């Protein structure tokens, strides 16, 4: 859903609307009935969380009724706490419905929020990864995974037929990499984009990207944010801008040329790099080397 429900559609919606934070938020540790329905389905969901790391966790949902269709999602607990209280009678479902309604409103054809949400329904025992919902989880952070049964009738007042079940857990600290990354950038202005030679001491993965001088300088001087925040934003932005929702992390020695995501117009930039593993997080210091791109002849 939201971030992972229909990748092509989501990319199109993001191009049509100005929203950068359409993720959700939740909190219901007591697994309470958020719908207020007296005739609520008695199906329960056992949520098991294992292999918790800095950047992921494996989650298994075991419904007591294998025929009940259910919806799942995960998000930072801080956000869940806020969103789930906006409409107490519906809980986090109000946020889910709002998301799909917004997507439907910006879609072509006879599309309803029910039709979109129904594509994301699950049935029976299923396993999930945290990073399929929160693309790049932060270390030492509380997250909530939730699920509820829902049966769509096509009415606007469709709502969960079961209680909303939640599981709260905390990601671990990052795993440090002992990979020593050396980056050499030409001192003269470069034509067309970034150019660099990268050498490493092992095959641990790392990220390399371009940040405008104004962008990096903001994080340099900010009292609220730091380079770790900048690093996660850069990784996330590249990930969601790719229609296939992928991002390349490098391994081993590499030569950067002014092509692809390393091409850019004339201006002042930084080449930003740091050890990074999708599951274990940022494994070392975030570095930024300034360089200048000149106009093509």
Descriptive account of the structure:
With 297 residues, the chain is an alpha+beta fold. The protein has two domains: 7-170, no CATH class; 182-294, S-adenosyl-L-methionine-dependent methyltransferases (Single Sheet), CATH 2.20.130. 20% of the residues lie in helices and 28% in strands. The protein is built from six helices and 16 strands. It has helices spanning 7-16, 77-83, 93-105, 113-118, 213-221, 227-241; strands at residues 45-50, 58-63, 69-76, 122-123, 126-129, 142-149, 165-170, 182-184, 190-191, 196-199, 205-212, 250-251, 254-256, 267-277, 281-282, 287-294. Strands 9, 11, 12, 14, 15 and 16 form a six-stranded mixed sheet that branches. Mean pLDDT is 88; it is low at 1-38.
State the oligomer: single chain
What amount of the residues lies in strands? 25-35%
Radius of gyration: 22 Å
| Percent in helix | 10-25%
Mass-distribution shape: elongated
Number of strands: 16
Low-confidence stretches: 1-38
Structural category: alpha+beta
- Largest β sheet strand count, sense and barrel closure: 6 strands, mixed
Mean pLDDT over the full residue set = 88
Spell out the key features of this protein.
single chain; 297 residues; alpha+beta; S-adenosyl-L-methionine-dependent methyltransferases; 2 domains; 6-stranded mixed beta sheet; 4-stranded antiparallel beta sheet; 6 helices; 16 strands; elongated
Topology:
Blueprint: H1 7-16, E1 45-50, E2 58-63, E3 69-76, H2 77-83, H3 93-105, H4 113-118, E4 122-123, E5 126-129, E6 142-149, E7 165-170, E8 182-184, E9 190-191, E10 196-199, E11 205-212, H5 213-221, H6 227-241, E12 250-251, E13 254-256, E14 267-277, E15 281-282, E16 287-294
Parallel strand pairs: 9-16
Antiparallel strand pairs: 1-2, 2-5, 3-4, 3-6, 6-7, 8-10, 10-13, 11-12, 11-14, 14-15, 14-16
